[in-house]
Amino acid sequence: MIDEVSATWTPTPWKPVGAEYTGGTYVGRYSLDLESGRTARSPHRPLLHGSTLYQITEYHALISLLFAVYNRHDEAFEKVAEMPFAEVRRRFLLATMRVQLMKPVFVDEVAVRLSIEKVTDKWERHQMLFVDLASDVADGSHRCDLSVCVNARDDLIGS
């Protein structure tokens, strides 16, 4: 799954290096190229900043939700899991994301832990699922709350 998604992801200063699922938590490890942010105009000590954090967290949420759907970690995922992988992937919409930068991160590899907090099933009436997620990066150095919509309505996203 990671290879398929990564192959079409835009080039970034980070890359996924591993993932696992343990007791309701989706854990991903990401290698960071923090030095790529250091220039003559910006000689400061490189750190994991907000835009990179957003990218990693969004990517990890997508990978984790795809894994959750195809392993049917919630009964609401049954209908979604019947759809082909490429189709499901394009149906995920990030609705909200709230990031709390708790303390600076200066390491070259971080772990991202994500859990599914709530699934709201609106599939029968609206062909939508809403999923609330909680994530932390680098052992709680940063926290993120996300809401994702799985939208199977072509009239809302176009074909």
Compact summary:
The chain is of the alpha+beta class and 159 residues long. It is 30% helix and 38% strand. It has six helices and six strands.
Structure keywords:
159 residues; 6 helices
Specify the structural class.
alpha+beta
Q: What are the secondary-structure elements, in order, as H or E?
A: HEEHHHEEHEEH
Low-confidence stretches: none
Strand order in the sheet with the most strands: 1-2-4-5-6-3
What's the story with the biggest beta sheet?
6 strands, antiparallel
**Helical proportion?**
25-40%
Shape: elongated
Could you explain the architecture of this structure?
This protein is an alpha+beta fold. It has a six-stranded antiparallel beta sheet. The model has no long low-confidence stretch (mean pLDDT 87).
Layout of helices and strands, plus pairs?
Elements: H1 2-8, E1 14-22, E2 25-32, H2 50-70, H3 78-81, H4 85-91, E3 92-101, E4 109-122, H5 123-126, E5 128-137, E6 142-151, H6 154-157
